[in-house]
Write a structure and sequence with these properties.
CATH topology: Arc Repressor Mutant, subunit A
Number of helices: 5
Structural class: mainly alpha
Helix content: 25-40%
Oligomer: single chain
Number of strands: 4
Distance between the termini: 20 Å
Strand content: 5-15%
CATH architecture: Orthogonal Bundle
CATH class: Mainly Alpha
Strand order of the largest sheet: 1-2
CATH superfamily: Winged helix-like DNA-binding domain superfamily/Winged helix DNA-binding domain
Number of domains: 1
Shape: elongated
């Protein structure tokens, strides 16, 4: 099923730590003291988040990273996209290097559309989940979008 990469997990750990310590610069060393994560990989992840415009870096003896925006304005979807791109649920969502569907049976496939709806539902939840909702001072994320369910009147197909 959908699984985030270690890079994204480490990025989320760092961003949550920054959100909990908002208003001050956080170093890779400090994050490493609080969480058992590889410092080298954490440094690479923070550089990627810096390039994506989610954090800013400060050099020097008291250097480190801080959030560019408020935790309420940064979404899980932005974080995931900046570190690994928009995840796919199935192979048929991908394309080969020439831009063609990665799946040979795509034109005949009966599961592509329902699985795409599930992926869109998951992605919608990620777009509504803020960094603040992942912190100690979090508030629940509302499930505003309808839950996907099987509709027995349509032969068990998934509907929104």
């Amino acid at each position: 099923m959908l699984q985030l990469t270690k890079r994204t997990e480490y990025g989320l750990i760092a961003l949550v730590h920054m959100a909990d310590n908002q208003g001050r610069v956080v170093s890779v060393r400090e994050i490493g003291e609080h969480y058992p994560v590889p410092k080298r990989l954490m440094a690479e992840v923070l550089k990627d988040l810096n390039h994506a415009g989610l954090v800013e870096s400060q050099r020097g003896a008291n250097g480190g990273y801080s959030l560019v925006r408020t935790p309420e304005s940064i979404t899980l979807a932005e974080i995931v996209t900046s570190l690994e791109g928009q995840p796919a649920l199935t192979n048929c969502e991908g394309h080969d290097p020439d831009g063609h569907d990665a799946c040979d049976i795509a034109p005949l496939c009966r599961i592509r559309s329902p699985l795409h709806k599930i992926r869109e539902g998951i992605w919608g939840l990620m777009e509504r989940t803020t960094l603040r909702s992942l912190t100690r001072t979090s508030i629940p994320v509302p499930l505003r979008a309808p839950i996907l369910s099987a509709n027995p009147n349509e032969g068990g197909s998934l509907t929104a």
